[in-house]
Amino acid sequence: MSNIEASKKLAAYTAVDRHVKPEHRIIGIGSGSTVPYVVERIVQQGEEANKGRVFIPTGFQSKELIVSSKLALGDVDEYPTIDVTLDGADEVDYQLNCVKGGGACHLREKVLAEAANTFILVADYRKNVQYLGTNFVQGVPIEVVPFAYAKVLQNLHHILGSPNAVLRMAVKKAGPVVTDNGNFIIDAPFPREKMLDPYIIMAQIKMLTGVVEVGLFCRMAKAAYFGNEDGTVTVR
Ligand code: 5RP
After folding, report:
1. For residues 159-184, b (16+ Cβ closer than 10 Å) or e, as one string?
2. Distances (CA, A) of 129 to 117, 124, 173, 205
3. Any coiled-coil ranges, and where (predicted)?
């Protein structure tokens, strides 16, 4: 296992051990490559612990993960209050603001984060940054309704002052990436100064007509766990 993979596993296992408690019945499962370790550790809590629990996915990947792990599947429309949601992140700053949506799931991820009494982030050490935009060069993912994407791009260029935002294309540029909700994704890189208080830019983007959700999660997480290369875990 590579150092990065080991770091993801360490973060996920530590977070589950601290935050998925015997009394928790409704559990949100996020998306990305760190989340399988979350589910792996939850399964290790045993059949007795997982009996009567319901797991809510943030998208196709986590749904498959829940089903293939033989855990009970639910949906957020049935369970609008979740005990704890655990999810990955593309970057997390020292105030626990984060960028999400690298996997184009941030709309459902934000609904599950908001529904959760406790929202926990798990990631490897590369995601632990003082300011958003340090390593994640693709920028902030923005889910938009397809027919409005060109207008949103134009408006983003006004906000950004430069035409850097792009429509996310599928591998081999076969066409735009389409989300689980049938929408497109725009990736908008922002200058560092705009990320000092990401809440302001998040609110500005959310006001644009045609925008469904922004991959900026401001002050939603209770804690973030980062696995480090030396086998330690940084907790914020
Ligand atoms: C998907 C996400 C993921 O949680 C984020 O991209 C992190 O993924 P990984 O754990 O693979 O680095 O927001 O929309």
Report:
1. ebeeeebebbeeeeeeebbebbeebb
2. 25, 11, 31, 22
3. none
162 pLDDT exceeds 80? no
Our answer on whether the CB atom of 105 is closer than 6 Å to any ligand 1 atom is: yes
Handedness of CA 138, 92, 14, 229 (dihedral sign): positive
Place of tokens 């033989």: 70
Q: How far is the CA of 234 from the centre of ligand 1 (A)?
A: 18
Q: How far is it between the farthest Cα atoms of the chain? A: 56
Query: How many CB atoms are located within 10 Å of the residue 94 CB?
Result: 11
Min mean pLDDT across 42-56, 96-110, 180-194 is at 180-194
Task: Tell me phi and psi for residue 3, to 5 degrees.
Answer: -60, -40
Strands 233-235 and 223-227: antiparallel
Average pLDDT over residues 191-199: 84
Q: Does ligand 1 have an atom closer than 6 angstroms to the CB of 36?
A: no
Catalytic residues: 109
Residue 219, CB half-sphere, CA atoms under 13 Å: how many?
4
The reply to whether ligand 1 has any atom less than 6 angstroms from the CB of 89 is yes
This prediction's pTM:
0.95
* Predicted ipTM beyond 0.85: yes
Count CB atoms within 10 A of the CB of residue 51: 8
pLDDT of the residue at 99: 96
For atom 8 of ligand 1, the residue with the nearest CA is: 32
Pocket test residue of 2, 8, 9, 34 for ligand 1, highest count of atoms within 8 A of CB: 34
Residue with more model confidence, 32 or 191: 32
